[in-house]
Amino acid sequence: MLDYDKEAAAYDATRGGEARAEAAADAVLTLIPDRAPGSGGTESPGRPARLLDVACGTGIVTRRLAAARPALRVTGADRAPGMARMAATRLPGAVLLADSRRLPFADATFDAVTTVWLLHLMADATEVHAIVAECARVLRPGGVYVTTVDKAAAHDVGSDIDAVLAARPRRPASDAAADVTAYALASGLRPAGEAVFTGVGQGRSPRSTRADLRRGWFTMLPPDDPRAEEFAERLAALPDQDRRRPDPRFRVRAFRKPAA
């Protein structure tokens, strides 16, 4: 896994920046009601809704969630101090350090919880299940949990780069939609919708893909493995080395906690 403290300063610029953040936030918000659910599961105008963005990173998406819904009380949480410091400049007083597997909140605290580009980073199913269970725990009845799924699969856009890399050994996807849905069901949540958005600026070029491959990304091959260099050589033979292929289309799923 990346050292997110070291990555914090350059993280946004290398991952689509504001354009991708806007697309992500818009997709997430289509799955979150405008107002807090009442005790019977209906929307209640009587109190402000609260949203927790788990693993908020630099806060680039979190800030947009807050700006789009001024009445929504948004809190960001991240366990990397470097990321949390950057997020705090975007949402002063609304960001804290926290481990997504052990959230420092009481049961039924939030009306919505989000995890954007988190679950795919986990090492095994146990960690993913623990995160989903924690997000469900801190949700109020009638609340919604929204998460990205199938991140790695979204990058396979049917390009010539994908054809070259098709035979590479891959890590099992920890954020597979079917698995995340199973964890949500086991945590008492129910499917509540899906959205997609474009990963603006995330299309791969042959040159950038070679560099990523040599860093050990999106494969189980270590960077110094001779097979990794074979893939790199095949990527080097592709035309238009700096032309980015189509941007990925990311999927977001929502799960609702049944009303009490």
Automatic annotation (TrEMBL):
<protein>
    <submittedName>
        <fullName>Class I SAM-dependent methyltransferase</fullName>
        <ecNumber>2.1.-.-</ecNumber>
    </submittedName>
</protein>
<dbReference type="Pfam" id="PF08241">
    <property type="entry name" value="Methyltransf_11"/>
</dbReference>
<feature type="domain" description="Methyltransferase type 11">
    <location>
        <begin position="52"/>
        <end position="146"/>
    </location>
</feature>
<feature type="compositionally biased region" description="Basic and acidic residues">
    <location>
        <begin position="240"/>
        <end position="250"/>
    </location>
</feature>
<keyword id="KW-0489">Methyltransferase</keyword>
<dbReference type="GO" id="GO:0008757">
    <property type="term" value="F:S-adenosylmethionine-dependent methyltransferase activity"/>
</dbReference>
<dbReference type="InterPro" id="IPR029063">
    <property type="entry name" value="SAM-dependent_MTases_sf"/>
</dbReference>
<feature type="compositionally biased region" description="Basic residues">
    <location>
        <begin position="251"/>
        <end position="260"/>
    </location>
</feature>
<dbReference type="GO" id="GO:0032259">
    <property type="term" value="P:methylation"/>
</dbReference>
<dbReference type="InterPro" id="IPR013216">
    <property type="entry name" value="Methyltransf_11"/>
</dbReference>
<feature type="region of interest" description="Disordered">
    <location>
        <begin position="236"/>
        <end position="260"/>
    </location>
</feature>
<keyword id="KW-0808">Transferase</keyword>
